[in-house]
């Protein structure tokens, strides 16, 4: 998976979210409900011609004053210009070019990244004519779209993915060592964890003015453990658009995640898991990354009750459902508690993710599990699973061969996944289960 990111920017109501949903097709979007001046910002993963990339819909604004509104939109555009690889600037043919469109266009013309001007709602030939007005904005790559019907999106996507090349595939190929990303919201303790692991020097290195890398890779080699740590803490911004810390932190987390095998998701124990944390968790799972959850600042929790950790963990797992087979470690970076255990957990997840179960063993165990709890009967015909094999994919995926592959429903799928997890230990790893015609 590449760390390639496409951002959709533009005024509210031009159709950004409609296009976003179309690019993602059935894949469910991760909605980040940052309240206040913005409406939901959405993050998702799109596929086109065998290429996978991140899509961000920068959202709309519901600010009541025009001033705030403009300021917010400029901020978003600037962040998108820094962080994305390709920008889709969307306008609405039915309103013509507005002042705000012209302002955003001025900003975007300075971008060194490819910018596509999308004139949306071009649903009929009359609007096709009207849309030519937008050529005056002066963008070489101008596309007329009807996001609602999808017309024009194919050509757009063909052009967008042509920018995904080997060198945007990140340097992750340079090493066979496990790559562990440290991610989480601002202030959860990411820098402190890094310092505890690799010392203060690392931060000095990243503090070199003009550092423009998005992530920092640090080779760790101590106590017989060797791996690459990927972090975004302390990465310097090129410009001074610091206000929207949350937006930054999510885009950064996505980039670090794309380069990693396993994500260490840090939470602040005093705050619990937030909607934003769940968004990031959901993305990691979709991307097939291994995950370890660190509940940091555990020292700040009053542990009067003996079952504090157990109860906390049970609640957390409920929030993480349906994928809750994840190591949860209660850490205090401040008091150096369980830091090493977290690393061990991440490395175990790394191994689980690469695990290949021999076919004979897999069938021995799983056919027994199937016998003891048979799939349901469909239209009078029993579903018979004859054989199972692990697919030669990079992350764990299993194919069950049966007579009626389309009729195996979610509950039975869950049963099989649980059996795989119970018998073979895929802790921290999203696994895929497929049914195929025998
Ligand atoms: P956003 O605020 O930019 O994300 O805009 P939305 O995606 O929420 O769309 C705003 C409105 O425009 C909705 O009512 C959409 O149904 C409508 N819309 C979006 N794309 C098209 C299109 O291609 N044609 C037409 N006619 N309407 C569209
Ligand atoms: P980052 O923004 O995620 O990199 O967070 P920092 O590492 O900068 O930490 C934010 C604040 O939380 C700092 O004041 C740290 O000293 C504090 N902090 C980090 N880890 C812990 C912890 O385990 N316990 C407590 N009490 N404070 C912590």
What does this 3D model show about the protein?
The protein is an alpha/beta fold and 438 residues long. The chain folds into three domains: 5-168, P-loop containing nucleotide triphosphate hydrolases (Rossmann fold, 3-Layer(aba) Sandwich), CATH 3.40.50; 179-353, P-loop containing nucleotide triphosphate hydrolases (Rossmann fold, 3-Layer(aba) Sandwich), CATH 3.40.50; 359-437, K homology (KH) domain (GMP Synthetase, Chain A, domain 3). Helices cover 35% and strands 23% of the residues. β3 and β4 form a beta hairpin. The protein is globular, with a radius of gyration of 24 Å. The chain starts with a strand and ends with a strand. Residues 33-38, 169-173 and 203-212 have low confidence and may be disordered. One guanosine-5'-diphosphate is lined by residues 184, 186-192, 233, 296-297, 299-300, 332-334. Keywords: GTP-binding, Hydrolase, Nucleotide-binding, Repeat, Ribosome biogenesis. Belongs to the TRAFAC class TrmE-Era-EngA-EngB-Septin-like GTPase superfamily. EngA (Der) GTPase family. GTP 2 binds at residues 184-191, 231-235, 296-299.
Topology diagram in text:
Blueprint: E1 5-10, H1 16-24, E2 30-32, E3 41-48, E4 51-57, H2 66-83, E5 86-92, H3 99-109, E6 115-120, H4 125-131, E7 142-144, H5 153-161, E8 179-184, H6 190-198, H7 201-206, E9 216-222, E10 225-231, H8 245-259, E11 262-268, H9 275-286, E12 290-296, H10 308-320, E13 328-330, H11 339-354, H12 359-372, E14 377-378, E15 381-382, E16 385-390, E17 397-402, H13 410-424, E18 432-437
Parallel strand pairs: 1-4, 1-5, 5-6, 6-7, 8-10, 8-11, 11-12, 12-13, 17-18
Antiparallel strand pairs: 2-3, 3-4, 9-10, 14-15, 16-17
The chain binds guanosine-5'-diphosphate (2 copies).
């Amino acid at each position: 998976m590449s760390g390639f990111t496409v951002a959709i920017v533009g005024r509210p109501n031009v159709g950004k979210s409609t296009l976003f949903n179309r690019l993602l097709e059935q894949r469910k979007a991760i909605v980040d409900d940052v309240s206040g001046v913005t409406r939901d910002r959405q993050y998702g993963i799109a596929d086109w011609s065998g290429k996978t990339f991140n899509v961000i819909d920068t959202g709309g604004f519901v600010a009541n004053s025009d001033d705030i509104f403009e300021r917010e939109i400029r901020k978003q555009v600037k962040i998108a210009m820094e962080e994305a690889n390709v920008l889709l600037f969307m306008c609405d043919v039915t309103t013509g070019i507005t002042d705000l469109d012209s302002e955003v266009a001025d900003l975007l013309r300075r971008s060194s990244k490819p910018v596509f001007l999308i004139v949306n709602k071009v649903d009929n030939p009359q609007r096709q004519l009207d849309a030519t007005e937008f050529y005056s904005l002066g963008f070489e790559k101008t596309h007329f779209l009807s996001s609602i019907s999808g017309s024009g999106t194919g050509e757009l996507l063909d052009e967008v993915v042509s920018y995904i090349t080997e060198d945007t595939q990140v340097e992750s190929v340079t090493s066979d060592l496990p790559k562990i990303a440290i991610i989480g919201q601002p202030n959860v303790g990411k820098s402190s964890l890094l310092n505890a692991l690799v010392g203060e020097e690392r931060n000095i290195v990243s503090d070199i003015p003009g550092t423009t890398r998005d992530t920092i890779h640090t080779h760790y080699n101590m106590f017989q453990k060797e791996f690459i740590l990927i972090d975004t803490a302390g990465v310097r911004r090129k410009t001074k658009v610091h206000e929207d810390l949350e937006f930054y932190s999510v885009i950064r987390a996505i980039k670090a995640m794309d380069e990693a095998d396993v994500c260490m998701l840090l939470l602040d124990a005093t705050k619990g898991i937030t909607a934003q944390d769940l968004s990031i968790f959901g993305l990691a799972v979709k991307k097939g990354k291994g995950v370890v959850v660190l509940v940091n600042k555990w020292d700040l929790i009053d542990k009067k009750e003996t079952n504090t950790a157990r109860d906390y963990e049970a609640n957390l797992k409920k929030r993480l459902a349906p994928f809750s087979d994840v190591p949860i470690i209660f850490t205090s970076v401040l008091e150096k508690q369980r830091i090493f255990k977290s690393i061990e957990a991440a490395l175990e997840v790394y191994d689980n993710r690469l695990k290949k179960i021999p076919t004979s063993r897999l069938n021995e165990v799983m056919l027994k599990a199937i016998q003891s709890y048979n799939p349901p009967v469909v239209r009078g015909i029993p579903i018979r699973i004859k054989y199972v094999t692990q697919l030669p994919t990079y992350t764990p995926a299993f194919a069950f061969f049966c007579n009626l592959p389309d009729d195996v429903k979610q509950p039975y799928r869950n049963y099989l996944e649980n059996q795989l997890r119970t018998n073979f230990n895929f802790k921290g790893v999203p696994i895929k289960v497929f049914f195929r015609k025998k």
